Amino acid sequence: xxxxxxxxxxxRALTPYQSARRLGGKGDVWLNANEYPCAxxxxxxxxxxxxxxECQPTALIERYAAYAGVKPGQVVVSRGADEGIExxxxxxxxxxxxxxxxxxxxxxxxxxxxxxxxxxxxxxxTLSDWQLDLAAIEQRLDGVxxxxxxxxxxxxxxxxxxxxxxxxxxxxxxxAIVVIDEAxxxxxxxxxxxxxxxxxxxxxxxxxxxxxxxxxxxxxxxxLANEEVINLLLKVIAPYPLSTPxxxxxxxxxxxxxxxxxxxxxxxxxxxxxxxxxxLKAINDVEQVFTSETNYVLARFVDSGRLFKSLWDRGIILRxxxxxxxxxxxxxxxxxxxxxxxxxxxxxxxxxxx
Length: 354
Prior knowledge:
By secondary structure, the chain is an alpha/beta fold. The protein has helices spanning about 10, 20-25, 60-70, 80-90, 110-115, 135-140, 160-170, 225-235, 245-255, 255-280, 305-315, 340-350; strands spanning about 30, 75-80, 100, 120-125, 145-150, 175-180, 205-210, 220-225, 285-290, 295-300, 315, 320, 330-335. The protein has a seven-stranded mixed beta sheet with strand order 2-8-7-6-5-3-4, with helices on both faces. A four-stranded antiparallel beta sheet has the order 9-10-13-12. A two-stranded parallel ribbon has the order 1-11.
């Protein structure tokens, strides 16, 4: 018997999430993973690697709670926000019985995490403007235990209408957990739902240090929720989710100086985003540039496949989103350094008329 035959049927049939690194490429301008383009230096201060780390490091939890404006008991830290997604599915969904719901086009890990645990995936595709189709969601809610909504949404870049989010939270009260993925909230902090937690006991929020904090390689994420939900997540989280160096560096990033540096990076990124958007709008092969509240820009091109390949061959790696629901012809471009943004624009101009 082949060992593959021993695996669960759902896993054998699963297509893994196509992360930027899995897709590969040999470029020198990496604009496909929504990372900050420059490394940030840290010095390790904890030398107790002979001991197991705390499950939920106190200093780190307290600093993130202060940063997010919540109580320490409303915070869980995990191996990236991706682990947070899995925690909700494991804590609230019975395999083969319950379902999760998400609204494509959106982040691909919601479905992958559900499928790997044998939990049904349901979709309620967004409206033409990529806002929530509340009627479609309501029709599909029976048996749904967790609803995932990304705002700002990846890969489209826009915020979800807060009135629609309130309507969703009212619709799901006593029925399902609503998880709002705020991975990009540092680029539009006024839009966070953290202040809504007291009003909605079934609301949860995912956060990360991977984007504006420039720590994608650290794999450190947070979940904000009411204490009852947090206590359930702590029942299913790994005993040592964060290594000591990760907790050490993350705490430094959340110091007053670290937060100030993050906000300076956000301002720089927004300025470079403006340069990129203005340049894209002046290129003939660009049909539309969509509004972004993030560190990336989604644009629709006349011949996206040709342009993607052409830039790939020149060492500029973008993210092709054309196979996602309603995103035909769309490429997602991470906002890099000013020089990288100019290189993308120059490469696209070189292709005009070809």
